[in-house]
Design a protein that fits this description.
83% helix; 253 residues; GDT1 family protein; OFeT_1; transmembrane helix; membrane; mainly alpha; transmembrane; flat
């Protein structure tokens, strides 16, 4: 078992399924738990099949240089997207993601959807199925890529399963959206991980000889964390300067 693969997969999957859980809870509270859970479970079943079908063949071809480069590129692009959002949120240029607000917005959308069907409510089923499936696709990408990069797909799958179990368990226990989970921080960490691994794997695919081999990933992760927080501080200063300038202009006018 690879502890790193388990931890990275756990964090990434947990982030995605916290958002899926918020949708499931909102739909279930308004339009009924039967349709809500059926839609979510159907999505999970299909996603599980995809992991089995996609993950296993990739483990046999992962040594091919172009496969390494392609997976590395996908990880890099995915990680940069998460990292960019995290920088914008922590600098104040983008609102922090709030599960309570997302829950209330989804509740209102479900209330406006019309009459609830006494059998299987199609709107509820479709909402939870699509929400769980889309969030799950991102989780699958995280699970497979971390598993392949760590050369331990089983460990990565275990981390993903543990994340799903923990999120569902907390949702049942609290009976509400998981507002206390530091989702934005988790996204920042996973973004750094994905970007670091992506850069490393692109290099591997192109034949780069990394100093100290896999340890180079830690150096890249540390460098990304440093430059990300420098960028956050810079954006905050720019935002404060802009706000002060606008205040002065308003005062003068």
């Amino acid at each position: 078992m690879n502890v790193y693969a388990i931890g990275a997969s756990f964090l990434g999957t947990a982030v995605e399924f916290v958002e899926a859980l918020t949708i499931i809870l909102a739909v279930g509270a308004i339009r009924g738990w039967k349709s809500s859970l059926l839609g979510a479970l159907s999505a999970v079943a299909i996603l599980s099949i995809l992991v089995a079908v996609i993950g296993t063949p990739l483990t046999t071809t992962v040594q091919v240089f172009w496969v390494q480069a392609l997976i590395g590129l996908l990880m890099l692009l995915f990680g940069i997207r998460w990292l960019r959002k995290a920088i914008l949120r922590y600098s104040g240029l983008k609102a922090l993601h709030n599960e309570e607000e997302s829950f209330q917005e989804e509740v209102e959308r479900q209330r406006k959807a019309g009459i609830v069907s006494p059998a299987i409510d199609r709107f509820a089923f479709t909402t939870t199925f699509s929400g769980t499936f889309l969030e799950g696709l991102e989780a699958i990408f995280i699970v497979i890529t971390f598993g392949l990069s760590a050369k331990s797909i089983q460990s990565s799958i275990l981390g993903g399963i543990l994340a799903v179990v923990v999120v569902i368990g907390l949702g049942i226990a609290l009976r509400g959206p998981l507002t206390k989970i530091p989702e934005n921080t988790m996204k920042f960490i996973v973004g750094v991980m994905l970007t670091s691994f992506g850069a490393f794997w692109i290099g591997e695919g192109l034949g780069v000889s990394w100093p100290q081999k896999d340890v180079s990933i830690l150096y890249m992760a540390a460098t990304l964390c440093l430059f990300s927080w420098i960028e956050v501080a810079h954006c905050k200063r720019q935002l404060n300067t802009s706000s002060q300038s606008n205040s002065i202009s308003i005062g003068v006018n």
